[in-house]
Amino acid sequence: xxxxxxxxxxxxxxxxxxxxxxxxxxxxxxxxxxxxxxxxxxxxxxxxxxxxxxxxxxxxxxxxxxxxxxxxxxxxxxxxxxxxxxxxxxxxxxxxxxxxxxxxxxxxxxxxxxxxxxxxxxxxxxxxxxxxxxxxxxxxxxxxxxxxxxxxxxxxxxxxxxxxxxxxxxxxxxxxxxxxxxxxxxxxxxxxxxxxxxxxxxxxxxxxxxxxxxxxxxxxxxxxxxxxxxxxxxxxxxxxxxxxxxxxxxxxxxxxxxxxxxxxxxxxxxxxxxxxxxxxxxxxxxxxxxx
Length: 291
Ligand code: SIN
Ligand code: FE
Known about the structure:
Elements: E1 4-6, H1 18-30, E2 33-36, E3 62-64, H2 78-102, E4 111-118, E5 150-157, E6 165-169, H3 173-180, H4 191-197, H5 207-221, H6 223-228, E7 232-236, E8 241-245, E9 251-255, E10 259-266, H7 278-286
Parallel strand pairs: 1-2
Antiparallel strand pairs: 2-8, 3-4, 4-10, 5-8, 5-10, 6-7, 6-9
Helix pairs in contact: 3-7
This protein binds succinic acid and fe (iii) ion.
Residues 133, 137, 139, 246, 251 line the site of fe (iii) ion (FE).
């Protein structure tokens, strides 16, 4: 089961000791969650009007891409859009400072991707099984292939009423992979090219992406697995933050409202121990390169 490793910082620009940095790097790459119980992201007075599910329209999240764009179709007017953009950009900068100070080794290759705001209560949220993050899963994105790069995510619980965000943490990646790999379909030749041509993926879907998507789907669709699999319950309190490789750590978010999240991609070459990456685990198990 994934461990939760605590850090004492209470500001985003905290200067970590060499010991803390080493502890963070090892724990993260082994599949632990790094938890900062005192690291609060402050929502400004003027931004508190954004803390309502109505602002997300029919979506569960509002996302901001690295060019500062928010997709249309959410329930926000011009003023709110500007407030949202500023709040999310501030979160992107704050989480960037955390990663820079805690994990300097990753800096040369780390690629900042989407920022998201999550104002909808998770418990009881209506959604398809595939999008239901309250089921244990590893992250894989249908339209954004990662081609083996790691998915590193920073979360902050900004709930104004003191409500925790509850997660479940499941078995290690290798166990998940061993469970589902034998029954996965091999990608059909030409599929990745066709998806790219049709504009369904932003770049080429590698065999790695193909397998990860199937594992994500299999886990969520497997009722038996969801009900019987051993898991740890983890409460991230209001005013706390955490970071985790969500492509490796089996997780589910079951309860909570109002969080911010920053996604980054990390090339394997930047890792201290790339052999722990899901790409290398899958390649060992299938016996061939997957990117
Ligand atoms: C997820 O990545 O599965 C959702 C996490 C969250 O919103 O807390
Ligand atoms: Fe997830």
